[in-house]
Amino acid sequence: MKNWNPITTEEQVREIVEKSNEKPQIIFKDSVTCGISAYAKERLVSGNDVLIAKADFNYLDLLSYRSVSNFIAEELSVIHQSPQIIVLKNGEVVYRVSHHSIQAEDIAKYL
After folding, report:
1. Between vectors from CA 76 to CA 97 and to CA 22, what angle results, nearest 5°?
2. Is 76 helix (H, G, I), strand (E, B) or coil?
3. pTM, full prediction
4. Is 29 helix (H, G, I), strand (E, B) or coil?
5. How many domains does the chain have?
6. What are phi and psi of 93, to 5 degrees?
7. Domain containing 65: what range?
């Protein structure tokens, strides 16, 4: 996870949206006390090479930064879920998925 960019502020979310105009951006919202989140994170770590080659990977610990998670939901017009993947391209959400549906290979198709 050394190449995962931590998200801690609303300003960083705005920057991620802006960066998506140059390179696809992935946001992973993680609930660190949730077993489903741990399972999703393990699948992402296993498929990390597929994703990192094509996009920037941004990580949000939503328990520590719940207000930022709420901002993401509002700013990007997505329903809050956890765990959740949001893929941005050209300033827009092009893919979102949550829970057991999080698969690196599926995410890569939208990059």
Report:
1. 90
2. helix
3. 0.92
4. strand
5. 1
6. -75, 120
7. 3-107
Q: Which two tokens stand for residue 61?
A: 């610990």
The predicted-structure confidence for 64-88, as pLDDT tens digits, reads as follows: 999 999 999 999 999 998 999 999 9
CB 57 within 8 A of CB 3: yes
Cβ distance 94 to 88 under 8 Å?
Answer: yes
Confidence of residue 2 (pLDDT cuts 50, 70, 90): low
From the CB of residue 24, how many other CB atoms can be counted at a distance below 10 Å? 20
pLDDT tens digit string along 24-36?
999 999 998 888 8
Q: Which two tokens stand for residue 72?
A: 């993401």
Task: Please report, for residues 18, 84, 85, 96, 98, the alpha-carbon distance to residue 81 in angstroms, rounded to integers and kept in the order given.
Answer: 23, 6, 9, 10, 6
Residue 98: give its domain's CATH number: 3.40.30.10
User: What distance in Å separates the CA atoms of residue 24 and residue 79, rounded to the nearest whole number?
Assistant: 20
